[in-house]
Design goal:
Blueprint (H helix, E strand, L loop, with lengths): L1 E6 L6 H14 L4 E5 L12 H7 L9 E5 L2 H11 L8 H13 L2 E8 L4 H14 L5 H28 L8 E5 L11 H5 L3
Parallel strand pairs: 1-3, 1-4, 2-3, 4-5
Length: 196
C-alpha cells in the first residue's frame, strides 16, 4: 500500500488535489481509500486516537493507495489554536507516523503551500456568508481577518514541524504550489511531481 498525506491550510486546494489524484489513480485500475481527519472527538482517549483507530487495520482492506486528508501535525496545531487545549507533545505524533511508515510500501507527505491572497480571502468570505447569511459586514470582515491570522500561523507551525518535528524522512516530504489551484488547472499530486 502506498500512502499520500496531504496538508495545507483551509481553502488552499486540498480537496481538489485529493479528488483529482484519486480519479487519476483509479483510471489506472488502482484501489484508493481517502481518509479525512478533523478535531479530537469527546469520546477519544488520546489526541491521536482517530489516527490509530483508522490505521490499525488499514492494510487488511487490500487497497493500493491510502490518501490522508490532514494528519497528526494538524491536530498538534489546531487543537491548541482553535480549541484552546494545552499544547500536545510532538511525541504523540511519532507513534502514528511510525505506524504509517511500517504499513506503507511508499509514503509521500505533500504540503500545499499557498500564501494568503485575494483568492484565498474570497473563498473564506464566501464560506462564512454561506454559513451565516444574516451576518453583518463588520462580523464577516472580522472573521476573515481571524482566518488570515490562522492561515499564517498554520504554515509557520507546519513548516517548522516538518523541518524538525517529524520522523518522516525529509526526502518523503514535498511541497506543491497552491496558486495552481487558483486557476482552471485540475492538478493531481501525481501530475505535480511528475510521478509514473
Amino acid at each position: 500500500m502506498e500512502t499520500i498525506i496531504v496538508l495545507g491550510a483551509d481553502r488552499v486546494g486540498k480537496t481538489t488535489m485529493i479528488r483529482n489524484t484519486k480519479k487519476l489513480l483509479e483510471s489506472f485500475g488502482s484501489s484508493v481509500l481517502v481518509a479525512h481527519f478533523s478535531g479530537i472527538d469527546p469520546s477519544h482517549h488520546s489526541p491521536i486516537q482517530q489516527f490509530t483507530d483508522s490505521l490499525s487495520d488499514v492494510n487488511s482492506n487490500g487497497i493500493d493507495f491510502l490518501i490522508l486528508d490532514r494528519f497528526v501535525s494538524d491536530t498538534l496545531f489546531y487543537e491548541p489554536y482553535r480549541a484552546k487545549m494545552p499544547p500536545i507533545p510532538h511525541e504523540y505524533s511519532y507513534e502514528v507516523e511510525s505506524l504509517l511508515l511500517s504499513c506503507s510500501s511508499r509514503l509521500d507527505l505533500v504540503l500545499i503551500e499557498h500564501e494568503w491572497n485575494s483568492d484565498i480571502e474570497n473563498r473564506h468570505r464566501e464560506e462564512i456568508i454561506e454559513q451565516y447569511p444574516k451576518a453583518s459586514h463588520y462580523w464577516v470582515h472580522s472573521q476573515v481577518k481571524k482566518r488570515e491570522i490562522e492561515h499564517r500561523e498554520y504554515y509557520k507551525f507546519t513548516k517548522e514541524y516538518l523541518r524538525s518535528g517529524t520522523i518522516i524522512p525529509q526526502e518523503n516530504i514535498h511541497t506543491m504550489d497552491g496558486h495552481l489551484y487558483d486557476s482552471s488547472v485540475t492538478l493531481s499530486y501525481c501530475d505535480g511531481l511528475e510521478l509514473p
